[in-house]
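User: Structure please.
Assistant: Input sequence and predicted structure:
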Amino acid sequence: MAIWTRLSEAIMGKPPKIYPESTANQLSSKLEHLAQNPKGLQVKELVFRLRLKIEAAQESGYTLEDIANVFKAEGVDLTLNTLKRYLQESRALNPKLTYRQSPL
């Protein structure tokens, strides 16, 4: 019987592997945990996400150098030139959004 099983698998390919329902439940739980605990953000993502607050700080009289120093104080490695570049990129991608329109 095993010979016929191997022969039919060779001709027709391997049958799909079947997993128990518990595997789906375990995977679901682990993926849900991952979704609730983000891996982290790159510096560019931080600037893009905080752009509106950065602009609000500028409106209040703070310079980009002041703002870059706030990032540095929190351990974020960000130079003034990089901050300027990322803000320009963010504005180019979404020029109409201003901090006064933000739902934040």
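The chain has five helices and no strands.
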